[in-house]
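If you are new to this repository, start here. Below is one unmodified record pulled from the training split, so you can see the exact layout before writing a loader.
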Amino acid sequence: MNSKQAARERLSQARAPLLALSHRIHAHPELGFEEEQACGWLATMLDEAGFAVQTGICELPTAFIARAGGGPLNIGIMAEYDSLPGVGHACGHNLIAAMAAGAALALAKVADDVGLTVTVIGTPAEEVGNASGKILLLERGAYAGIHAAMMVHPAPMDFVQPRIIAASMFDVHYTGKEAHASAFPELGINAADAITVAQTAIGLLRQHIRSGDRVHGICTHGGDAANIVPAHTSARYMVRSDTLDELEELRVKVRRCFEAGALATGSKLEIRGGDKPYTEMLHDADIAALYRRNADALGRKFPDANSAVGRFSASTDMGNVSKAIPSIHPMIGIDCLPAVNHQPEFTVHCVSAAADQAVWDGALGMAWTAIDMAADKTLSTRLLARN
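And here is the target side for that same chain:
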């Protein structure tokens, strides 16, 4: 039996518990940095499979690292497991977690034979948009010694190298002055008006930014009572651009819009966050080609490059990992259209039969790709030369 067949056989043995794990995480959604159950379930599964597991790494209680094998080429597999507020696992991180665990279990079976070390990193809080799990783990040394990193993310359809752009999330706070809204409105400073001015300015700004740029957000606090001039209001916003450099240009323009709100109303402005943004994704072409070949072998279908691929753009802190380590972040389809990521309908699809098949295909696709990386002497030499 060759190494790929052995990996497939091991994954077959774990199929039922992996799908149960995916469904369990889906049924118990936890927000970023609060994923105690999901982290614990993953760590327990890998520990029982013989991995050396450390939880609470890098001063992050819901992060973990698990290792098996002793080969020279160290492949990192990323597990995400945080959910979204209100809509639960509408980005399918329950699938990402199960795929990561499945790929690791399959690879552990053959790691020493093919020359691999398998490292699973549990990365919390991908959805927080700033100072997220992978960014903090990178800063604190969790990726030391890893030669390449990978993960697979659910989507409406399969993409090998999706367009993943830079992003920054931040909170905006305006402080004005309360007053009776009818009797003494002239004595108030309306912080809600400041947000209105800023949002109007942003709407006008959209005429003069790049077609791929994005600015979007919500008002998180608009005041306390209709008869009190609002003195404290806040909003949460994201800006996105193709690259980190372009993101900084956009961020400056958007900040001016918020400054305009403060200037027009006399409110005081404070912006918090946005200091640790997500970078654009650098897909490693050689590793991506191996994944594509293995996904093809598993029967995955990829859209024409000129179809929906051109419209797709998202952001993830896996981009930051890709700037430090050769990485891939393919998307795997779960047959969900017209539902798309971050819709409650997508949440429902993340425990469908198609989603369960994606757990299998994504896990095995990553395992086979790692085996091919070890067998490709040119590629493995390039990766090993980094350290």
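Two things worth knowing about this chain: The chain has two domains: 3-164+281-384, 166-273. Residues 3-164+281-384 form a domain with the Aminopeptidase fold (CATH 3.40.630.10).
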